[in-house]
Amino acid sequence: QVQLVESGGGLVQAGGSLRLSCAASGGTLSNYVVGWFRQAPGKEREFVARINRSGSNRDSADSVQGRFTISRDNDKNTVYLQMNSLKPEDTAVYSCAASLNYYAGEQRYTYWGQGTQVTVSS
């Protein structure tokens, strides 16, 4: 059973940056595709970015392209989300999740972290 723990969230002004981390225990994260998702108050959870097992393939939602970068360090069993040029509309709880399938929909992500709050002030 893989446990995922997110960290790095917080309060930042618009235009600022944050780096989120998703650390795994109880399993080898390199066996999984990892995705980041976010949920804003009153909204559905949405896909943000994903990365394949080796880190050689990644993609992200249109709303964050050019601003957010997903990466991973398999030696550290950790996946990162670097968020630059943050906007108030990026405010949400950000969660990481692990899947065996790169093209899996949200419902096929097996393991989920508890999430970390990101708040962007204007």
Structural summary, described in words:
The protein is mainly beta. The chain has no helices and eleven strands. It has strands at 3-7, 10-13, 18-25, 33-39, 46-51, 58-60, 68-73, 78-83, 92-99, 111-112, 116-121. Strands 2, 4, 5, 6, 9, 10 and 11 form a seven-stranded mixed β-sheet that branches. A four-stranded antiparallel β-sheet has the order 1-3-8-7, with no helix packed on it. The termini are far apart.
Beta-strand segment tally: 11
Evaluate the radius of gyration: 13 Å
Distance between the termini: 40 Å
Number of helices: 0
Q: State the secondary-structure class.
A: mainly beta
Helix amount: under 10%
Looking at this protein, list some descriptive labels:
122 residues, mainly beta, 11 strands, globular
Furnish the topology, listing elements before pairings.
Elements: E1 3-7, E2 10-13, E3 18-25, E4 33-39, E5 46-51, E6 58-60, E7 68-73, E8 78-83, E9 92-99, E10 111-112, E11 116-121
Parallel strand pairs: 2-11
Antiparallel strand pairs: 1-3, 3-8, 4-5, 4-9, 5-6, 7-8, 9-10, 9-11
Structure, briefly:
The chain is an all-beta fold and 122 residues long.
